[in-house]
Design brief:
The chain has 504 residues and is of the alpha/beta class. It has 19 helices and 16 strands. The structure holds 5'-O-[(L-methionyl)-sulphamoyl]adenosine.
């Protein structure tokens, strides 16, 4: 079976509230997945939920619910969230599914048989809130613990450990030899800097059942469950294995994650895979974090962006457009409501929306909706821009791709202003020139419909409906000249209605 393009996102903590950060990551992965499909690749896009661990156990207890029932309720909420974002994911993993648990147990058995795990004693400072042991380096200068750690107590515990040191040098060499393994570059340098400067401690991969029952049992020691991160990372592999598609899916092409979880993905996960004799993902693609109005989003201060409220108010494609256009994959971003409204007004309503609407309205009005003879005045610009867009999509430069697409929107809007078809229409001697202009505009609208497939799927479909053409699914269709002469288009309908706020 031939290899499919396999892209994953981080799996979200089931007990968190879906917010802008989660929505952003899933939309970025969706645009990449749709781009690859439109480039003719066979794609598998996986997202899902991380459902075990201390926090889930505590939250379920606080609500007087069984953890599994608690997770089931929340999971259905997250699944509707994925639908609201228009995600084209091919599966949705939940770490409480049997298919996942079976693979985790099998992999642990393998590591155990190979002596990659051992039982050891650990004494240390434990943060209950962060579910992690702390070291003296984590203390404030005055010796206290930051309140983000909650209650910190000394704990002595026997646990299972995974040997990390065996593969540290190998990982350094792998990252050096594969420059795109961690992207962007500054994240790769961060990982290399870390790996070169410390000796990796062995990774504690269990929790005693007496302290935490809500986890996948360690198959060879019934007093323990799995550490939630070991369990969670395996999701990328458990789905392909459980579906019997390991050979066509593994290794993953892209693990898309946020900058806070890079160590788990670029250090622990590769070493786990190496120990299991499995190949490494081709790329860990690391995105930045969103703030709102220059400050960290936080439920307590009410400084949050609720993607569902934005989508209800402005439409899904407006949301998808803004997050991809505003922020490249890598740096941190800042959401402002005014920034959103201004991009909506300038780029969607007055830019794309106005171009499509006035082009198709003039074709209706002046030519009864019938496409005139082919003419190639905008062909060179459209072809160059389409190629540029496709190149950006091949390298996952989504923001740059949108910038290219909008250079075509702007070029065509400028063309309308320069050629002034509304004036040409008044002069019968200019009938031929008007035909030429209308063909160029109609064909540019069609090409924009093609280029927008990965980003704004509903808008792309609407452009094709208004052109009365079968929706395109392939970026190949962006070649100039496919709009057939003599074809009759449908009625134009505004794509992005102007909003009162922008009219003021
Ligand atoms: N469950 C772990 C991931 C396990 S992956 C094997 C987790 N979950 S999370 O819900 O806290 O975060 C999920 C993803 O959302 C992470 O990639 C994280 O970086 C991302 N984001 C969370 N808040 C974010 C922003 N404010 N901005 C952008 N992305 C952010 O970590």
């Amino acid at each position: 079976m031939s290899k499919r393009f396999y892209i994953t996102t981080a799996i979200d903590y089931v007990n968190g509230q879906p917010h802008l950060g989660h929505a952003y990551e899933k939309v970025v992965a969706d645009v990449i997945a749709r781009s690859r499909r439109a480039l003719g690749e066979d794609v598998f896009y996986l997202t899902g939920l991380d459902e075990h661990g201390q926090k889930v156990q505590q939250a379920a207890q606080a609500e007087g619910k069984e953890p599994q029932n608690y997770c089931d309720e929340l999971a259905s909420h997250w699944q509707s969230f994925a639908i609201r974002l228009g995600l084209s994911n091919d599966d949705f993993v939940r770490t409480t599914q049997e298919r996942h648990k079976t693979v985790v147990a099998a992999l642990l058995n393998k590591l155990h048989a190979q002596d990659d795990v051992y039982k050891g004693t650990y004494r240390g400072w434990y943060s209950w809130r962060q579910e992690t042991f702390l070291t003296d380096k984590d203390r404030n200068p005055d010796g206290t613990w930051d309140p983000i750690y909650g209650e910190v107590k000394e704990l002595v515990e026997e646990n299972w450990y995974f040997r990390m040191g065996r593969h540290q040098q190998w990982l350094i060499e792998h990252i050096e030899a594969n420059p795109s393994f961690v992207s962007p570059d500054y994240r790769r340098n961060e990982v290399l800097g870390f790996l070169r400067s410390v000796t990796l401690d062995d990774l504690c991969i269990s929790r005693p059942k007496s302290r935490l029952a809500w986890g996948i049992p360690i198959p060879f020691d019934s007093d323990y469950v799995n550490y939630v991160w070991f369990d969670a990372l395996v999701n990328y592999l458990s789905v392909p294995i459980a579906r019997g598609e390991e050979t066509s899916l593994w290794p993953a092409d892209v693990h898309l994650i946020g900058k806070d979880i890079i160590k788990f993905h670029a250090v622990y996960w590769p070493i786990m895979l190496k120990a299991m004799s499995l190949s490494l993902p081709k790329q860990i693609l690391v995105h930045g974090w969103w703030q709102k109005d220059g400050a960290k989003m936080s439920k307590t201060t009410g400084n949050v962006v609720d993607p569902v409220a934005i989508i209800d108010d402005w439409g899904l494609d407006a949301f998808r457009y803004y997050v991809i256009r505003e922020l490249a994959i890598g740096p941190d971003g800042n959401w402002t409501d005014t920034g959103f409204a201004s991009r909506y007004g300038a780029e969607l309503a007055n830019g794309l929306g106005n171009l499509i609407n006035r082009s198709l309205s003039m074709l209706q009005r002046y030519r009864a909706g019938i496409v005139p003879a082919r003419h190639d005045e905008l062909a060179a610009d459209a072809t160059r821009i389409a190629n540029e867009t496709i190149d950006h999509l091949r390298t996952n430069e989504l923001q740059a791709a949108l910038q290219s697409i909008w250079s075509l929107v702007n070029r065509a809007n400028q063309y309308v202003d320069q050629t002034a078809p509304f004036k040409l229409a008044k002069d019968p001697a200019q009938a031929m020139r008007l035909d030429e202009v209308l063909y160029n505009l109609g064909e540019t609208c069609r090409i924009l419909g093609v280029l927008l497939i990965p980003f704004l799927p509903a808008t792309s479909a609407k452009i094709f409906a208004q052109l009365n053409l079968t929706p395109s699914l392939r970026l190949d269709d962006a070649q100039w000249g496919a709009l057939p002469t003599g074809h009759t288009i449908s009625a134009p309908i505004p794509l992005f209605p102007r909003r009162d706020a922008e009219k003021k």
